[in-house]
Amino acid sequence: MAAKDVRKVVLAYSGGLDTSVILRWLQTTYNCEVVTFTADLGQGEELEPARRKAEMFGVKEIFVEDLRETFVKDFVFPMFRANALYEGQYLLGTSIARPLIAQRQIEIAEQVGADAVAHGATGKGNDQVRFELAYYALKPDITVIAPWREWDLTSRTRLLAFAEEHQIPIAKDKRGEAPFSVDANLLHSSSEGKLLEDPAVGPEEIVFQRTISPEAAPDKATEITIDFVSGDPVAINGVAMSPATLLTRLNELGRDNGIGRLDLVENRFVGMKSRGIYETPGGTILLSAHRSIESITLDREAMHLKDSLMPRYAEIIYNGLWFSPERRMLQALIDQSQHSVTGRVRLKLYKGNVICVGRESPNSLYDTRVVTFEDDEGAYNQADAQGFIRLNALRLRLGAKIGRRGGAL
After folding, report:
1. Is residue 245 predicted with pLDDT exceeding 50?
2. In principle, which of 56, 188, 251, 289 could form an S-S bond with 282, CB 3.0–4.6 Å?
3. 3-state secondary structure labels for all residues of the chain
4. Residues annotated as part of the active site
5. 154 is in an annotated binding site
């Protein structure tokens, strides 16, 4: 679709310098009407300034929406049922936010009759992929505008010059080079770039947004309980909470105990390695608690199968394929496994650590009569182990005989 064919575009708009420049650039380059969409996903920023900026640019249709409960209930919690970790460490805080933003953009586009959507992700990162794969999965014929892949504003100097030319307000702290970029939502904060680009240099304390350092955390452990129903957390210390309220409280507990920091060099979907500093205080607590309640409620083979599929599930989300058939298939399997994952976990939070000190469930598969070192009253016949071991040793014994003859593996 040529520029002249775009009549109305829905822009994912934060109100910051970059998306403000994008808004004006869309108006001047495409000569189209721009609709702004600003989502509150718990990033901790006041969003009304974004509305006022959009009004200043003559935007007539402005959407500023609180999506925190939807974000946690329909995106974060389903992901945590899988215990998803990308490359064994990353709790996918940025990755899981993009499909919700994209979904709402498409819904707004249909509501207002827009023929295009736009985002502010750069051409080097993962977010452009995540946004656009979601757009096309939800509305295959949508036109997508990615300004960072189109314009010639390739430096901070050019961006600022465009802003001044078009009377775009520039905060004083934006005139100089920011020491690093930050992305945040209710699940995590992510810091990367510039000051953090050398992976050999540790992050300074100013980088951390969501946690105190473990060294500064209290010398006494904080003990809490988390209740689960069908794999999702529903209460802390016996107090029922909505999904977003519960995650907010876990974030506070994690922050105060120095929990959830991660310094990671990861493999981006676009091919390069990048270094990021992540803080996921509540999510780190939740992951530990969820695995603890699963340990007594999931069958062994079900748990092992689920764990074997987790890296693939995490990679699917990281790569922006939330709305893909493979993610939906895996989600159905994961959700099926969670029907019995109900109960209470007791945790100690101490100087960056999450320590499980107890777990109980009406669906527990743990049987003290079977595992006891005392008299099990016939619950387990130890003699049965002999045949079990001999059958499992058969291939090893046969292989060892061949190995002695020919050195085969």
Report:
1. yes
2. 251
3. CCHHHCCEEEEECCCCHHHHHHHHHHHHHCCCEEEEEEEECCCCCCCHHHHHHHHHCCCCCEEEEECHHHHHHHHHHHHHHCCCCECCCECCCCCCCHHHHHHHHHHHHHHHCCCEEECCCCCCCCHHHHHHHHHHHHCCCCEEECHHHCCCCCCHHHHHHHHHHCCCCCCHHHHCCCCCEEEECCCCEEEECHHHCCCCCCCCHHHCCCCCCHHHCCCCCEEEEEEEECCEEEEECCEECCHHHHHHHHHHHHHHCCCCEEEEEEECCCCCEEEEEEECHHHHHHHHHHHHHHHHHCCHHHHHHHHHHHHHHHHHHHCCCCCCHHHHHHHHHHHHHCCCCCEEEEEEEECCEEEEEEEECCCCCCCHHHHCCCCCCCCCCCCHHHHHHHHHHHHHHHHHHHHHHHCCC
4. 18, 98, 127, 181
5. no
